[in-house]
Amino acid sequence: MFSIAIVGATGLVGHKLLKLLEKSKLKDFQLHLFASAKSKGQKMNFRKNEIEIKELNEKSFEGIDLAFFCAGSTISKKFIQYAKEAKTTVIDSSSAFRCLDDVPLVIPEINAHTITEKTSLIASPNCTTTILMMPLFELHRKFRIRRIVAATYQAASGGGIKLINKLLKETKEAIQNPNKIHHGFYYGFNLYLHETAQNPFRYSEEEAKMIFETRKILEDSEILVSATCVRVPVLRAHSIAANIEFHNDFTLEEIYEIVKKTPSVRILEDFPNRRFATPIDATGSFDTLCSRLRKDPFQPRTLDIWIVGDQLLKGAALNALQIAEIVINQKRGALCS
């Protein structure tokens, strides 16, 4: 029987992945759950069974065919080497190995072709990059993107349960004492530039990820990307305002025709009533939502677009599961051939 493991099963992404896996069409596999020592011995429900959580260690991957890593870069850098030694195929949701040339960075709708039967480690992209790429990849194939300027509005879910709890706590504090002045990364009725460290060019790690990953996923190192990532007081689902310059000219009718046919993308807009996609609309949706598609009136061959997607689903757990379906079908096909 095929054997699957989730590393970081108790985190937001790991827990969402467990629920998606439970409802998926994947059958006939044994599931193993791993987390830190504090979760050892706890049990999680899966398809009417209780699965005990085990503490992750160097021997955890013996007999495991496929492992999802949903526990952050530190855990991935420490333990993926042991998974590879055990011949376990790894799908990593962290940023630990995305920059390596021999590690495919995969959004299945865009570049599933980069996964082969010999691939042992696959990286799932940054959630914001994934949401940005979904409505753009078919447009890139048709008109070829020259430059992207993006501003993100990122939800607390991107920082895990700790950041969600911080938002809830500080919002309550702000309501109870509205006259108290707070500074810095205070989250109650506030927003702030993404908290990750800045590089020598004054771009945050989150912004640098979007720049590098966009080029790698679209397989075009000449695309110019400028991003400003902002943490906003929203519980779940990221939003992006993007200005896209293409090499080739286009009509708005052509844009709509392509986007409407793009897999896992949905246009949600009502211009007469000024009703456009919001994080609440995207929460729980497998689709990436688009609104306010319009030509830049001052820059030729340039499109403005508003994009919203669920950070925990297509931005993380759903994308990882879609990768796993490709890997498992390849492995089972190889066994049957």
Structural account:
The chain is an alpha/beta fold and 337 residues long. It has two domains: 2-124 and 316-336, 3-Layer(aba) Sandwich (Rossmann fold), CATH 3.40.50; 130-311, Dihydrodipicolinate Reductase, domain 2. The chain has ten helices and 16 strands. It has helices at 12-23, 73-85, 108-111, 127-133, 137-143, 160-176, 205-218, 252-261, 279-282, 313-336; strands spanning 2-7, 29-35, 43-46, 49-55, 66-69, 89-92, 121-123, 145-154, 192-193, 224-231, 238-246, 265-267, 269-270, 275-276, 288-295, 302-309. Strands 3-4-2-1-5-6-7 form a seven-stranded mixed sheet, sandwiched between helices. Strand 15 (288-295) and strand 16 (302-309) form a beta hairpin. Helix 1 crosses helix 10 (313-336). The mean pLDDT is 96.
Strand-residue proportion: 25-35%
Strand order of the largest sheet: 3-4-2-1-5-6-7
Overall mean pLDDT: 96
Query: What name is given to the CATH topology of the largest domain?
Result: Dihydrodipicolinate Reductase, domain 2
Could you give me the name of the CATH homologous superfamily of the largest domain? Answer: Dihydrodipicolinate Reductase, domain 2
Total of DSSP H or I helical runs spanning 4+ residues: 10
Helix content: 25-40%
Q: What structural class do the secondary elements suggest?
A: alpha/beta
Cα Rg = 21 Å
Distance between the termini: 17 Å
Order of helices and strands: EHEEEEHEHEHHEHEHEEHEEEHEEH
Question: How many β strands by DSSP?
Answer: 16
CATH architecture title of the largest domain = 2-Layer Sandwich
**How would you describe the shape?**
globular
| Biggest sheet overview | 7 strands, mixed
Which regions contain 5 or more consecutive residues with pLDDT less than 50? Answer: none
Look at the structure and give the CATH class of the largest domain.
Answer: Alpha Beta
Could you say how many structural domains there are in total?
2
